[in-house]
Amino acid sequence: MNRIDLKDKNNFIGSWNIDNNDLCKRIIEFFENNKNLQKKGTTVSGVNEKVKKSIDLSIDPKKLNNPEADRIRIIPIEKSVREKIGVVVSPESLSELPQIIKKMSINQEKWTKEIKRLRKEYVYNLGRSAVIGAENILRILRR
Prior knowledge:
Strand order of the largest sheet: 1-2
Strand content: 5-15%
Mean pLDDT: 81
Order of helices and strands: EEHEEHHHH
């Protein structure tokens, strides 16, 4: 898999060339056959189709009951940045939420800075991710 360097760095999604048409087809089939994992695209402010109009599917290999999941050495972004952009609260600690929210709101500038920094690092094709993603999938499939 090779990363494609897109000229516009102020965008939402990265672009990679998988070099494997069969894999691309299987990814598309997986998406189409797993409606239960799909959800409307969201941003930090929630669902807003004027900002992001997409159907998203997040995949955690461990949740797929894939016996080979340990071979995948990529940590999902949701896990790698989770504690950097918010506080993880277990169901047993829900009673602590008011204090956690208060503490976060006091440090709102810190959280905002970190979210913006991570967005700059991980987010590409902002507002155009669906179009650019589709164009790249079509380009790969046409090979």
